[in-house]
Amino acid sequence: MASASPKPVLKVLLCSPRGFCAGVVRAIESVEKALAIYGAPVYVRHEIVHNRHVVESLKAKGAIFVEELDEIPETSAPVIFSAHGVPKAVPERAEARNMFYLDATCPLVSKVHIEAERHHARGREVLLIGHAGHPEVIGTMGQLPEGSVHLIESIEDAEHFRPRDAANLAFTTQTTLSVDDMSEIVNVLKARFPAITGPRKDDICYATTNRQDAVKSIASSCERMIVVGSPNSSNSIRLVEVAMKAGCPRAMLIESAKDIVWNEFSGIERLGITAGASAPEVLVDEIVGAFRARFDARIETVTTANETVAFKLPRELRTKPAA
């Protein structure tokens, strides 16, 4: 009886860093600590981070997710704001209802909020480079009076923007953009408005930059690239775009192992895998395991940076022990 044919050999390059960033870890731990201290339910306005696996896991522990505060009944339970940040009107509404709220906004997003407020206070017209409708963009624009922030989504927007006073302009950015795309837009703005004021340091967060750099380092040597992440995750979508732009012929966003379309990978010899900043490592492990089952997978981790950043939990969660 003929023996089964050997599995095809597949070189798998695992990007490092990948997966959770410090802001995501802080946000998830904020919900878990609030549940431990106060018990269920804990309400969370918007997905705490953009990952279905994370959200479902927290739901199972007693978190209730809502899109707006109006969906929350009168309660003494904690209400947590997501890592993406919220407009100023949201905590104002929470205070008007005497809600006990905890702010899990990523500190790097909060830094952008502060920058926008400072520019506005100094009389500058504020531009925000970002994607319309993303919760982070809504939150940042909502720090200032309506109409005070102009959203720039593309090079075309940068080319056509007409300021009130070209000598009194400032820009800031969403933290999860493509570094290269953002740079192209900023170059246009600086060429048109040489006096424009920008951040002292890029607003794009360290984790976004590091994950994109890791993808760039292997993309051209891979026939396929998998980005583990959810379709509403901005930083994950950017990783797909970065991989393609850096030379990978086919990159795709995959939420979990069950979503793998296997005929996409027939005949390939080199595969790259990374994960967006809100994707847990367990999903990467499952996908690697699925490839091991079908291929003689030779795994190599490619490290381009070492991350040591950590953020403290909100003060209210640091001062109380779990029940």
Set down the secondary structure blueprint.
Blueprint: E1 9-16, H1 22-38, E2 42-45, H2 52-61, E3 63-66, E4 79-81, H3 89-96, E5 101-103, H4 107-121, E6 125-129, H5 135-141, E7 149-152, H6 155-160, E8 169-173, H7 179-192, H8 206-219, E9 224-228, H9 234-245, E10 251-254, E11 270-275, H10 281-294, E12 296-303, H11 315-318
Parallel strand pairs: 1-11, 1-12, 2-3, 2-4, 4-5, 6-7, 6-8, 9-10, 9-11
Question: How would you characterize this protein structure?
Answer:
The chain is of the alpha/beta class. The chain is built from eleven helices and twelve strands. A five-stranded parallel β-sheet has the order 10-9-11-1-12, with helices on both faces.
Question: Would you summarize the structure shown here?
Answer:
The protein is α/β, with parallel strands linked by helices and 323 residues long. The protein folds into 3 domains: 9-20 and 206-303, Cobalt-precorrin-4 Transmethylase, domain 1 (3-Layer(aba) Sandwich), CATH 3.40.1010.20; 22-106 and 310-318, Rossmann fold; 108-192, Cobalt-precorrin-4 Transmethylase, domain 1, CATH 3.40.1010.20.
